Amino acid sequence: MYEEAIEYKDSLYKELSRIGKSLGSDRRLEILDLLIQAPKSVEEISKELKISVANTSRHLQVLRDSHLVKTERDGNRIIYSLSSPLITKLIQLLTDIGENELSEMKVIQHKATTSENVKSISLEQALKSYKNGLLLDVRPQDEYQEGHINSAINISLDTLSDHLTELPKNRQIIVYCRGRLCGNSNIATQLLNNNGYNALSLNYSYYDWKRALKCINEKK
Question: Which of 21, 54, 68, 220 is the least buried, fewest Cβ under 10 Å from its Cβ?
Fold first, then answer.
């Protein structure tokens, strides 16, 4: 009986360790964080990560073997997506732990948010003041369409320079992108402020926003 219990325990831990091993790569963590935003093809993921398609495919195969991602065919393309909404929670929790326990992460984030002409705003402050300003989502259009903060407009970072005149200079602009592990909102904010706008960087994602709103509503 005792030996059976040990075998049972060891077998379960061995299976669970497959997930831990698949998370033991910065690239695979980045892929999962990217797929939180929207399903993507291997070519799209490769372009975002700036690594070869072959290398991207190897990382995706590890994630698929661990059942963290799934695939669906779209014509000649294979589209990858998260296997479960729980994966989003897992990455958010991992980020929370990293920010709380890894001083190196705090240093990196502080350096980015205190760069010249980068002004930041906390999630709590943004939730209180966003209705008085303009929310700007600088993610690619497919990610914006998958889900975004209500009332936010979308201009991707790659095209922002060409669309500056479409934005008001008499309103505060709150910029957000993929979240706490993405520096694009800081880059966009710096670009806007360098051109005479009043922009603040919100280093939180649409999913962080939803989670915060849920907590507020549950307290009411």
Answer: 220
Query: What pLDDT score was predicted for residue 220?
Result: 65
> Residue 19 sits in which domain range?
2-87
Tell me the mean pLDDT per 10 residues along the chain, length 220. 89 94 96 97 96 97 97 94 96 94 92 90 92 95 95 96 95 95 94 96 93 81
Beta bridge partners of 120: 201
Same domain, 187 and 124: yes
60 and 118 share one domain: no
> What pLDDT is recorded for position 110?
87
> Which residues are 77's β-sheet partners?
74
Within this chain, do residues 124 and 152 fall inside the same structural domain, yes or no?
yes
Based on the domain organization, do 115 and 29 belong to the same domain?
A: no
Give the count of domains, the chain: 2
For residue 213, the model assigns a pLDDT of: 87
Say what the pLDDT of residue 1 is: 66
> Can you tell me the distance from the alpha carbon of 130 to that of 213, in angstroms, rounded to the nearest whole number?
13
| Residue 48 · residue 38 · CB < 8 Å | no
Both 70 and 128 in a single domain?
Answer: no
Residue corresponding to tokens 């980015």:
112
- Name the pairing type of β-strands 40-41 and 77-82: antiparallel
